[in-house]
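Exercise 7b. Backbone tokens:
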């Protein structure tokens, strides 16, 4: 990108102030003072302003309301990727914090801060993920009591060595459950219901820890506030 744009994106300077700073000799690229605003630079160049190195982007924290048909991956696949819905520079640096299946809708977090992502996903932090689960058949009576107990005690899923961690199940309607998980195994919700003989027709994540989707419409995203980031 042009050097004046690089400066605008990494400081609070407007383009005209960036150009003035360059004319004053305050901007260097790889140790050489550069006055031509059109000089091309990228993240591999060491750009300094008044002797201070400039970083193109800081750490970003994003909440997305994922629609169905969108994949939580950085690889290019047949499906659009979650990052393709987001309009920020250096998108390839953003990683989803955990994953939702391609047909699951709801709250996805993305960040380029690996430590923060780890805090959110680590089961030790007990950051509850709230799912609305629509079942093919009603779950009621004794079967429901048994499911609540099994999920609270942990279910041994096919192919796993350890049972799931304690999870909280409640029914909102005969076919609509709320399930709170504190971990994120592959297809965990669908496999847990399969283990008790139920098929999940639709799955939606409403919240992660202190953060809920709120008014964010399907397909929309926004950056988290500093308070929201710190709340995890
Ligand atoms: N569990 C699932 O089965 N799918 C998801 O997308 C998330 C949790």
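Sequence design result:
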């Amino acid at each position: 990108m042009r050097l004046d744009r690089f400066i605008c994106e990494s400081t609070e300077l407007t383009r005209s102030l960036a150009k003035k700073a360059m004319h004053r000799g305050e901007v260097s690229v790889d140790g050489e003072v550069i006055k031509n605003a059109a000089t091309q630079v990228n993240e591999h160049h060491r750009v300094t302003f008044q002797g201070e190195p400039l970083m193109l982007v800081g750490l970003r924290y994003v909440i997305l309301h994922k629609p169905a048909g969108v994949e939580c991956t950085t690889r290019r696949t047949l499906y659009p990727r979650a990052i393709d819905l987001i309009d920020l520079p250096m998108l390839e640096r953003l990683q989803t914090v955990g994953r939702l299946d391609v047909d699951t809708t709801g709250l996805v977090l993305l960040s380029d801060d690996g430590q923060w992502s780890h805090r959110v996903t680590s089961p030790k932090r007990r950051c509850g993920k709230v799912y609305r689960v629509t079942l093919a058949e009603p779950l009621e009576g004794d079967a429901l009591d048994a499911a609540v107990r099994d999920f609270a005690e942990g279910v041994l899923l096919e192919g796993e060595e350890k049972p799931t961690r304690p999870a909280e199940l409640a029914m909102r309607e005969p076919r609509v459950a709320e399930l709170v998980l504190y971990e994120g195994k592959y297809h965990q919700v669908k496999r847990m219901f399969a283990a008790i003989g139920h098929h999940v027709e639709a799955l939606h994540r409403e919240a992660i820890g202190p953060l809920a989707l709120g008014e964010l419409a399907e397909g929309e995203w926004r950056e988290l506030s500093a308070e929201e980031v710190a709340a995890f």
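Instructor comment: The longest helix spans residues 141-153. The pocket of uracil is lined by residues 100-101, 104, 187-190, 203 (CB under 6 Å).
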